[in-house]
Amino acid sequence: MYDIRKFFQLTPLLILLAACAETQLAVHTVKEMSPPPASGKGNYKVGNPYQVAGTWYYPKEDFSYDETGIASWYGPGFHGKSTANGETYDQYAMTAAHKTLPLPSAVRVTNLGNGRAVTLRVNDRGPFSKNRIIDVSRKAAQLLGFEGKGTARVRVEILPAESRRLAAIAQGKEAETASAPAVPRETVVAEVLTDSSNTSGSTSTIPVTFQAARLPSSVTSADGQAVVQLPVRPTDIFVQVGAFSQLHNAMRVGARLNSIGASRITEVKVGSARMYRVRLGPVATVEDADRLLATLGANGYHDAQIIVE
């Protein structure tokens, strides 16, 4: 028979342990929510080829980089940890992770769904998924308008002059870039930018200031982060299975895909050569594209990738 007196003897101890656990949880939560200490200047890094989950990545300097695809964002789980080039990751800073671009480098990321564009400093590696082309910080996702949704159709363009300047600074060559002209700024007026990614039904806005005069389409957030509003055009999501120099090879692959979905073959010029792309789609959502990519991978098409056009 259970001795009820033991229960009352143990109760204060159980309450004390619960209080300690709650205190530890609160401390941990505060650490996660607090911005990390300011980090020193990161190292300049291109890096050697590396492999993650069976996929090889080949970092290089590519000042012509311009790609469309799907962006995601990363935040709390990495906040305060080291980035690939030795900085401290701050989810409230305007940074991003890329698989192959030099660290650091500067890119313009445009949300093709709402036309918002921001300039980010790439200082980390990732995202290690064929489904995504860039991971932006939480702050960048907020300003681009997709924090709530989690992903967005984007265009990522490297900014050559800014990237070279960042590289020079990271390598201790600040003096060589000191004479570079500053970015012109204009008079600003207060305005509010609505977060179109919010799907919870509640109102969410981001305070910004519109650049007047020379750049009427540019805006600046309350903390000084630049956001540019560009015209929006319709885009489609495809899953590209491959690109072939011979039409008959493309047609053969297209025929094999009939059991998965309707394929299309398009001809494009790459330099002086003709290439034939085999694609499935368009598909309606990023989630549909993810599922289709997983199906293709299970059927041996490991080089398939998501394309936004």
Please outline the major beta sheet: 6 strands, mixed, barrel
Numbering strands along the chain, what is their spatial order in the largest sheet?
A: 3-7-4-6-5-8
The fraction of residues in strands falls at 25-35%
Distance between the termini: 73 Å
**Tally of contiguous helical segments:** 6
Run of helices and strands: HEEEEEEEHEHHEEEEEHEEHE
SS-based class:
alpha+beta
The rough form would be described as: globular
* Spans where pLDDT lies below 50 across 5 or more residues: 4-40, 177-216
Q: Helix fraction? A: 10-25%
Please compute the radius of gyration using only Cα atoms: 24 Å
Mean residue pLDDT: 78
**Count of individual beta strands:** 16
Structure, explained:
The protein has 309 residues and is an alpha+beta fold. The protein is 24% helix and 32% strand. It contains 6 helices and 16 strands. A 6-stranded mixed barrel has the order 3-7-4-6-5-8. It has a 4-stranded antiparallel sheet with strand order 14-15-13-16. The protein has a two-stranded antiparallel ribbon with strand order 1-2.
